């Protein structure tokens, strides 16, 4: 293991992971109902394969991917479909989203996925990608991008470099740390399956320097596997070291083009949780019907990490953790820097739910009154995307799309580092998050207008040419004919 070069910008902030990592991962209680949103992954919503009153088994496919970027969904229990209807979900708080509601019969009768268990090295890389898709595997680091789609779009001639992201940099979240401590063999198995599916020559597992137990456990599993293609790289625990672009820069010294993807520079990044989910599917025939969720914060009695079936209500996990304390003031999904505030806890765990924070005022201090920018420059010093947040903020009032685009608003990863250090309490990241869709719309409109303008000029040019040809023909006709 070796430490890598310094991350640009970023912050060393308290990790707040001690409480949730005291105990081993435990299983969440079973619930009476499970709610499975059909659009819980990036891309298009999955298409239901079941209807109300159908019986389903644990692990049975209940929705298939729509054409394009989409993912399979499987039942997390055995029981009966009681509705397919819009329900509130934590990843789309604006409006209810179409969901499959399943009544649990408590029997956990398994769907026969025996055919799913494969010796992955004996199938072709394309078949391996297809197989990973059928397990409903999506990125478990937060974006829930369908893994097979990402693998297919990353295939390149010499095989891309595979990077497994175990740099769980955001405060409070510890599900990956516990996974690496307790299920390191699954991660190594998943890494080998991914190497095969991508025809990749090697795999680097990145892990932060403040999780020695997880490092030791991974190293032990790697020694046992004896696969020299896989190596572990230790990176400094600086937030946001685990951001995809930041991690690629730290580990490989490569920069992802601002308007491109890691695949453009021959790198594929997957979360360690995704690798473990692939192992459980390929080796054990278990599709992605559960994940580890960190439940923590001063507002919950017993913090911990729970193996949780997708579709479990947050309220049930809170109850598993002893309920709220009287200091509880705010509920979030995700970490304290980039998490989303939730209006209530009757929301289902989705594949992207890595952490639930029941926060007190001690965890998340209420923001003070916003003051004018004093041009101190703190925000640009910590920006890991090397932006000038104070300038971006300036061009938001009034909205100047051209300058915002020129100053890289779309490169902002919404990490919140600038907010954290701003003495004027300006909610910079929130403003940037809100401004991005406006800028994208403006740029799209500008592109459409440019295209319309080019079409208009092309039409005028064509008409002038036709007219000139017409005149030339007329002139030719009117020329006096010579006497023979
Ligand atoms: S939120 Fe955006 S602008 Fe602010 S530090 Fe992070 S990347 Fe930079
Ligand atoms: S940290 Fe806040 S006050 Fe300082 S320059 Fe940035 S926006 Fe202005």
CATH superfamily of the domain at 19-30 and 122-291: NADH-ubiquinone oxidoreductase 51kDa subunit
Ligands in the structure?
A: iron/sulfur cluster
Strand content: 15-25%
Structural class of the helix and strand makeup?
alpha/beta
CATH class assignment of the domain at 19-30 and 122-291: Alpha Beta
Radius of gyration based on Cα positions: 26 Å
Order of strands, widest sheet: 1-14-13-17-15-16
The helix content is 25-40%
Query: What is the name of the CATH topology of the domain at 19-30 and 122-291?
Result: Rossmann fold
Structure description:
With 484 residues, the chain is of the alpha/beta class. Among the domains are: 19-30 and 122-291, Rossmann fold, CATH 3.40.50; 376-478, no CATH class. The chain has helices at residues 125-134, 147-154, 175-182, 184-198, 212-225, 244-252, 272-284, 314-320, 378-382, 389-394, 401-406, 417-421, 428-478, and strands at residues 26-27, 33-37, 47-48, 55-56, 61-64, 73-74, 79-89, 92-104, 161-166, 203-208, 230-235, 267-271, 290-296, 304-309, 330-333, 340-342, 355-359. Strands 1-14-13-17-15-16 form a six-stranded mixed sheet, with helices on both faces. The protein has a four-stranded antiparallel sheet with strand order 2-8-7-4, with no helix packed on it. It has a four-stranded parallel sheet with strand order 11-10-9-12, with helices on both faces. Strand 15 (330-333) and strand 16 (340-342) form a beta hairpin. Helix 3 crosses helix 5 (212-225) and helix 4 crosses helix 5 (212-225). The protein is globular, with a radius of gyration of 26 Å. It starts with 25 loop residues before the first strand and ends in a 6-residue tail after the last helix. The model is unreliable at 1-5 (pLDDT under 50). The protein binds iron/sulfur cluster (SF4) (2 copies). Residues 373-379, 389-390, 393, 421-424, 426 line the site of one iron/sulfur cluster.
